[in-house]
Specification:
It is found in: Cytoplasm. Keywords: Cytoplasm, Methyltransferase, rRNA processing, S-adenosyl-L-methionine, Transferase. Helices cover 30% and strands 25% of the residues. The strands form two sheets. The protein has a seven-stranded mixed beta sheet. It folds into two domains: 168 residues, THUMP fold (2-Layer Sandwich), CATH 3.30.2300; 162 residues, Vaccinia Virus protein VP39 (Rossmann fold, 3-Layer(aba) Sandwich), CATH 3.40.50.150. The protein is an alpha/beta fold. Helix 5 packs across helix 7 and helix 9 runs parallel beside helix 10. It contains ten helices and 14 strands.
């Protein structure tokens, strides 16, 4: 079986299918998508799975939580012996550095979590006995994924740990701390984990850097920035939670975040305002065009229809109107809903 299997938010299968199809065609790897509404995954069939995977890096895919390379589909497993046909399908494969047994993050597949846990405990020793799994986790080797879509139907897939989500199901398990001003803090925390690599976080988020948070109230994104010891100008006519102000790193300006501009260039700008996505893209581009910031994270609230088309349009609009070289990454995060989160930075 040749192609990719990608997870997504339930209900966004058409957007992921459209993204994979368009990007694969542009890269010279035509194929077709198989999916069902609310399944939370898309299978994209193509002749050269390895080349297709290299042409579509996980970090650059917007609607994919996880990207896996297909080995086999097993649609009629016997519940009394699921292991034997899996071992047969894996014959001749390379040795794997780890095993993840998963299920899509959909309403119908979530009850499979118990099966995934117990089956993983049974499959690991069988794989080791067959010489297919290392005794200890080895991130330098490909990772084997067994994806159950129901009790009798599974996909066998490979992940390159360097080009795949590091979290099971592609979902980072973040905890909302008791002093967080709002749940929106998790969106920025996840954005910094998903859209920046470890080296970028170390280099771009240094104590003493300056930032603006547009539409900050009640202060969830400002709070995340202060945890990285950035000095933040929080712009919103609404109030901030007192513990955010108590950090000593925050200046609260009661102003319209969509109209305000800084008196000097800042390191960062973040924005999670409820506005039309094209208007947000244009305003964010102004910040880069005028040199008001070097890095930004912002959200684009998507319409109910033609969301992939709107995504492309808004990102192209932002790049065009920035009028300077910028690098852009975007993801629909686990903590997003009808939106995507964008990281943009000036190119040197």
């Amino acid at each position: 079986m040749s192609g990719l299997l990608c997870y997504c938010r339930q209900g966004f299968e058409p957007e992921l299918a459209a993204e994979l199809g368009e990007r694969a065609a542009l890269a010279g790897f035509p194929g077709y998508a198989r999916t069902e509404r609310n399944s939370a995954f898309v299978v994209f069939m193509g002749e050269d799975a390895g080349g297709l995977s290299r042409a579509l890096p996980w970090r650059e895919l917007i609607y994919a939580r996880q990207k896996l390379q297909l080995i086999a589909e097993l649609p009629a497993l016997d519940p009394k012996d699921r292991i034997t046909p899996m071992l047969a399908a894996l014959a001749g494969q390379t040795r794997f550095g780890d095993l993840w047994v998963e299920h899509p993050d959909s309403d119908t597949a979530k009850p499979l979590a118990g099966l995934a846990r117990s089956f993983g405990n049974a499959l690991r020793p069988a794989l080791r006995k067959a010489g297919l799994l290392s005794d200890k986790e080895n991130p330098r080797l490909p990772r084997l994924h067994v994806v159950f879509v129901d009790g009798n139907h599974a996909y066998l897939c490979i992940a390159d740990p360097a080009d795949a989500s590091p979290w099971p199901l592609g979902i980072p398990r973040l905890k909302l701390l008791s002093d967080a001003p709002s749940r929106s803090a998790l969106k920025l925390e996840e954005a910094l984990l998903s859209l920046l690599d470890a080296g970028e976080r170390e280099h771009l988020l240094k104590a003493g850097m300056t930032a603006a948070d547009l539409g900050a109230a009640p202060g969830g994104w400002t709070w995340i920035l202060t945890r990285h010891h950035l000095r933040v100008t929080s712009v919103d006519n609404g109030p901030l939670k007192q513990n955010v102000m108590d950090s000593g790193l925050v200046e609260h300006l009661r102003a319209d975040g969509f109209q305000w501009k800084p008196s000097r260039s800042l390191d960062w700008m973040v924005c999670d305002m409820v506005e039309q996505p094209r208007r947000v893209a244009e305003r964010m581009a102004t910040w880069f065009r005028e040199g008001w910031c070097r890095h930004a994270v912002f959200n684009l609230k998507l319409p109910m229809k033609k969301r992939w088309d709107e995504t492309r349009l808004c990102l192209d609009l932002f790049v065009e109107q920035a009028e300077r070289p910028v690098m852009v990454r975007a993801k629909q995060l686990y903590h997003d809903r009808e939106e995507i989160t964008v990281f943009a930075t000036t190119r040197r």
